[in-house]
TrEMBL record:
SMART domains: FCD (SM00895), HTH_GNTR (SM00345)
Protein name: FadR family transcriptional regulator
PROSITE patterns per record: HTH_GNTR
Species of origin: Halomonas binhaiensis
Keyword Transcription: yes
Entry-linked PANTHER family: TRANSCRIPTIONAL REGULATOR, GNTR FAMILY, UXU OPERON TRANSCRIPTIONAL REGULATOR
C-alpha cells in the first residue's frame, strides 16, 4: 500500500516575517550589535498587528539571532548565536531515534581526525595553556562517581578546545555536536560508573602525546594519534554499553528498590497501579 505523503505545514505569518528578517540581515551584511527596525516600523512594513511582529521577534530571539531589550534604548539587537541552541535542537531530534555510541563514533572516527589535522600550526600559547590545564584537571580526578562524570566531561572538553581552533566552521560544529552527543550518553548511561582506570589512562596518554605532536607541528603524528585515540575510545564505549545492557536485565524487585531515586519512575508506577 502506497502511503500518501502528509501535506507540508503552512507557515504562520510570524514565521514568514522572521525568515524575511533573516534574509534581510544577511543581504545587508549586518553584524553583532546592529539594531533591527522598531516594532512600529516592522508593523508598517509587513502590514500586520503588533502581536504578529512580537511573535516573529520572539522566534529570532529563541534561535539566538537577536536579544530583546526593554525600556529606553531597547529593541531588537543583533546577536551572534552560539552553537548551543542548534546543538540542543538537533540532539532533541535524535533523542527519539535510539542513538548509540557506535553510531556516534561512525562519524567521530572520521571527523575528529580531520579536525585535529586542520588545527596543526594554528594553536596559540593560550590554547596550549588551556589544554595543559585540562589534562591537569583530569589527572586530579578522585574515586567518587561525581568526579568520574566530571572527568568524562573534561576529556570531551579537550576535544572542544581543539575544535574551537578549527578554521572550518562546519567541521568544528560537527565535532563539537558529536561531543555533546557523547556528553548526553555519559549522563544517560552513567558512563563514569563503574570506575574505568584503563580508559582514563588511555585518554591521558593520547592527550599528552597529541599536545606534544601539536607543539612539534607533526601533521602525520597528529593524524595517527587521533585515529588511534578514536578507535580506542570507541572500544571502551562499546564495552560500556555491553555492561549497561547486562545491568538492564534486572528483576522488578530491584527496580522497585531504586525507584526512590527517580520521581519520574515513581509517578509512572503510580499511574500503572491506578
Amino acid at each position: 500500500m502506497v502511503q500518501t505523503p502528509s501535506p507540508q505545514r503552512r507557515q504562520k505569518l510570524a514565521e514568514l516575517i522572521s525568515d524575511d528578517i533573516k534574509r534581510w540581515i544577511a543581504t545587508e551584511g549586518m553584524v553583532e550589535g546592529d539594531r533591527l527596525p522598531n516594532e512600529r516600523a516592522l508593523m508598517e512594513l509587513y502590514g500586520c498587528a503588533k502581536g504578529t511582529v512580537r511573535e516573529a521577534l520572539k522566534i529570532l530571539e529563541v534561535e539566538g539571532l537577536i536579544t530583546l531589550k526593554t525600556g529606553p534604548g531597547g529593541g531588537a539587537i543583533l546577536h551572534t548565536p552560539s552553537m548551543e541552541p542548534a546543538s540542543r535542537m538537533l540532539r532533541n531530534f535524535l533523542h527519539f531515534r535510539s542513538l548509540d555510541g557506535y553510531q556516534v563514533y561512525q562519524l567521530r572516527r572520521l571527523l575528529e581526525v580531520e579536525m585535529a589535522v586542520s588545527v596543526v600550526g594554528l594553536l596559540t600559547e593560550k590554547d596550549f595553556a588551556t589544554l595543559e590545564a585540562n589534562m591537569s584537571d583530569c589527572e586530579c580526578a578522585q574515586s567518587d562517581a561525581e568526579d568520574h562524570r566530571r572527568q568524562r566531561f573534561l576529556e570531551l572538553e579537550f576535544h572542544n578546545c581543539l575544535a574551537r581552533a578549527c578554521p572550518n566552521p562546519l567541521l568544528a560544529f560537527m565535532c563539537r555536536f558529536l561531543n555533546d552527543m557523547l556528553r548526553d550518553l555519559v549522563v544517560v548511561k552513567k558512563a563514569y560508573v563503574p570506575e574505568r582506570k584503563q580508559f582514563d589512562k588511555a585518554n591521558h596518554r593520547y592527550h599528552r602525546e597529541l599536545v606534544d605532536a601539536y607543539r612539534a607541528e607533526d601533521v602525520e603524528r597528529v593524524r595517527t594519534l587521533m585515529d588511534e585515540h578514536m578507535r580506542d575510545a570507541e572500544g571502551h564505549m562499546s564495552a560500556l554499553e555491553a555492561e549497561m545492557a547486562k545491568q538492564m536485565l534486572i528483576v522488578p524487585e530491584t527496580l522497585a528498590q531504586g525507584s526512590e531515586h527517580s520521581p519520574l519512575l515513581q509517578m509512572f508506577q503510580q499511574q500503572q497501579q491506578q
